[in-house]
Fold:
Amino acid sequence: DSGVTQTPKHLITATGQRVTLRCSPRSGDLSVYWYQQSLDQGLQFLIQYYNGEERAKGNILERFSAQQFPDLHSELNLSSLELGDSALYFCASSGGTNYNEQFFGPGTRLTVL
Amino acid sequence: GQQVMQIPQYQHVQEGEDFTTYCNSSTTLSNIQWYKQRPGGHPVFLIQLVKSGEVKKQKRLTFQFGEAKKNSSLHITATQTTDVGTYFCAGPGTNAGKSTFGDGTTLTVKP
Structure:
């Protein structure tokens, strides 16, 4: 157990819809990262937040947005969903003495029908 | 932005054979990390290398950081079925804390 929680575990929705994925980082970690992993693909970095502020942006679509709240949990919002958005979405947190070490949550599997 | 390239993409071995995956960067890396993702699981941090020429061992796993800090390797001696999964290397991004992941090497082990 990494200490990072993600909800929901599975999400099935239709094209055009909007969903929100939630992540709670490990206690004390200030950084939260979001990744997308499509079938048999690598980890595509989407976005990083540090203590409530956006720190780095990767290949995140304009239809996607994220935020980190004062209690450090984070939400990833995906809108106008397309079939190609079906993927596993991971959240990771870091912030210990080795700030590069990321602890991954179990992921949210999104299926867009 | 900075990228790390990983080869091979797939590796199939017989149980007991050795396995190596390589990670290469066009730029010097301040550090590199290795993660393992079991089938159906999430990536799990294995190790971080920081020093030029550094070699670290974890039981049957040997991690190496190149002298120029542009490449790294993970070698598994005498693979076991428990070694199956995808191994990712990750280099630091342009912002503190951000990592850039390689595409991973998926290892399958035939018993």
In short: The CA atoms of residues 24 and 71 of chain B lie 4 Å apart.
